Amino acid sequence: MSDGRLSVNQETIKQWSLPELAEGCVKAGIDKVGLWRAPVQSYGVERTARLLSDSGLSVTSLCRGGFFTAPDPAERARALDDNRAAIDEAAALSTDTLVLVSGGLPEGSKDLHGARERIADALGQLAPYAAERGVRLAIEPLHPMFASDRCVVSTLSQALDIAERFPADQVGVVVDTYHIWWDDQAPAQIARAGAGGRIHSFQLADWITPLPAGVLVGRGQLGDGSVDFRAFRTLVEAAGFDGPVEVEIFNEGLWARDGAEVLAEVASRYAEHAC
Amino acid sequence: MSDGRLSVNQETIKQWSLPELAEGCVKAGIDKVGLWRAPVQSYGVERTARLLSDSGLSVTSLCRGGFFTAPDPAERARALDDNRAAIDEAAALSTDTLVLVSGGLPEGSKDLHGARERIADALGQLAPYAAERGVRLAIEPLHPMFASDRCVVSTLSQALDIAERFPADQVGVVVDTYHIWWDDQAPAQIARAGAGGRIHSFQLADWITPLPAGVLVGRGQLGDGSVDFRAFRTLVEAAGFDGPVEVEIFNEGLWARDGAEVLAEVASRYAEHAC
């Protein structure tokens, strides 16, 4: 049913422990997962690496580093330390991609430009460290509804403006359909990202409404919303991307269901809408 | 306290009836209001026009026309009829500006481009009708979080791409800080709009989080959020705009308070943050 490129991000089925995820993916014939730091740290980084390796699973990305926008020096130093730890964890998990959620506006600030510059400054310090460990930093533009509180990088264009200050094998971008589907500049920016070798991750979730309060966990199962996944897949492939296609959905409804049922549905929807 | 350019959109104080709004504005020394069709229709269009004229109030804009994206011919015909009625109402209220919320994706559709083209097609039919009545159509780009269900026009750039197919005195755009504050292309697009004489309305609301469920009524009082109003005012004025500055906030908290208190706060925040 799958084309061998499907990766399932663990947050899509966060009701599952890591061993359940590993077992479930093996049973379903899926050999790639995306991971998040908190559950990996709870289970143990080395232990997670062994579990996945023993299960024949590879890790397509680790979420997330970032939160670079604090102007306070002590807070910045803590963020950089935490990102170096995230890079170490990515290396330990043998994934080449650390996803970055860059951070919102500092409390009381209205200076988007300044916040974006602090992101670039932090990347200048982290990219060489990551490169030495075989890890690429992938800037994820988040939907503009997250601009104040999570990520001042709202478009692929903005993400590339920052990423292109660094070598492509050190800093790239995440193309996540949920965040960019509305943007008529996205096709041109995907081409730009691909031409530069900067599509480091390709993630899928559908756009559905009404959005829940806080808007964080309102993503839709593939096919339930407004995103034309096949069009986006065609765009990234035309731009030279042939890597994993990661499904990352935050949705209370999916989390309340049986994990195996959700995984089967993800695989089936992926085949129907994104292959 | 005010600079004489403040206009208060009635939805900001929707707990007030039209007579209360007129009386409250006169008392507060505010001589401009923005109106919405539903409360005007309830009170009576001609009656509203007389009330405001007798109170010495002018109408800076009428919200809203639009919802042009349905592909079904009968539904399109109904939308065009309704927009002609909105234009007539705008003319009766002696406002030169009808604000358009263009419409989201039709049920089941993922075709943003097609929906945007249907907007342009509808404007082709409506703009001459509006021009004959002295009414300008103002395309309002809505925040991308509304792209699927309310408005497929998400940026000033997209709005201008459509508006520029028509004469500037017939079709322009709304610059609303709430919808565009996050966009690093907004300054260049405001300049483009101004150079073409297409800034038909300038509206203010602040961006605050967390967003409420449905995200429609989560706008912030000026100064409570992330928007740099003075920067945006500087941009529109540098682009040649010298019209009214309309405060339009949808916020349950404001609606629960005493109207006169809210109006005084709007005037005070306007003077503090946007003059």
UniProtKB/TrEMBL annotation, chains A, B:
Molecular-function GO term, any one: isomerase activity
InterPro entries referenced in this protein's UniProt entry, alphabetically: IolE/XylAMocC-like, Xyl_isomerase-like_sf, Xyl_isomerase-like_TIM-brl
Keyword set includes Isomerase: yes
Keywords assigned by UniProt, alphabetized: Isomerase
Protein name listed in UniProt: Sugar phosphate isomerase/epimerase
Xylose isomerase-like TIM barrel domain sequence ranges: 26-265
Pfam families in alphabetical order: AP_endonuc_2 (PF01261)
Domain of life: Bacteria
